[in-house]
Amino acid sequence: MDKLIIHNIDRSFGRTRALRQATLEIPTGIFGLLGENGAGKTTLMRIIATVLKPDAGEITLGDIKWSKDSHKVRQILGYLPQEFGAFKNITAEECLKYIAQLKGIKGSEECLLQTERVLKEVNLFEARDRKVGGFSGGMKRRLGIAQALLKDPELIIVDEPTAGLDPAERIRFRNLLRQLGRNRIVILSTHIVEDIEATCQSLAVIKNGTSVQFSSQQELSTIAAGKVWTWKLSNDDYNSLGKDIHVVSSKIHKDYVEARIIADVKPGPEAEETEPTIEEGYLVWNMEQE
User: Fold this and answer.
1) Which of 108, 125, 199, 229 could form a disulfide with 119 if both were Cys (CB 3.0 to 4.6 A apart)?
2) Separation between Cα atoms, residue 104 and residue 77, nearest integer Å
3) Which residues of 154-173 are buried (b: 16+ CB within 10 A; e: fewer)?
4) Can you give the pTM of this predicted structure?
């Protein structure tokens, strides 16, 4: 399958520049777009989904050009926006049949077949006759993915899909994304590092509208090599750490606290250098951009 090529995308809202020559090459599989809230992720997702037009730049997939072929783009696209709204007083099956018709799926029999197929894919088939208003947050997200899967799209965009979900639903959703990425391009936009770490083969980070692509999670994590330390401290020593000590995480034990710390130099005599995680690589990258 062809790569999705995003080349020099600019977008401004008045005097605010949301994207600055964003450039990415996205292969088949799950691609993570990581960034803080307000970094420009949702703007880029909406441009890829043809909801917004860029001020400059081009997006292509094979011979399809976004600037010229927006109708063709919508035929191969499935999109789960950050806020997925659905009528509360209709069933999941009725909701998907309605969206199937909006997507141009013709004939009541074909609509039913596609609706049943996607409900099974997202494990909502047994709940097909339940009203959407009674769904949990995770079930609504899965319904959102189901509507994105109608017409079997080549390209799927999911924007902050696990925000607000409980841990069990988040794990279910990640497993679903892994299945979807086997034979299509899935773009996962999120500020949650764990979601990227659990699902994505390749990724990019975005800050202040500028994108940087990494070939692997390890490439991002190694940015923090030599800067991550594990330090075992007494409770009193831990509580007295100065504000200049950047504690990433800590584990409380019976007699001590084990802290993970980002620092350019060894923060204390008993601190030990440790292998960085993708989150720590991302944190260091962010600090270097400031």
Assistant:
1) 125
2) 13
3) bbbbbbbbbeebeeebbebb
4) 0.89
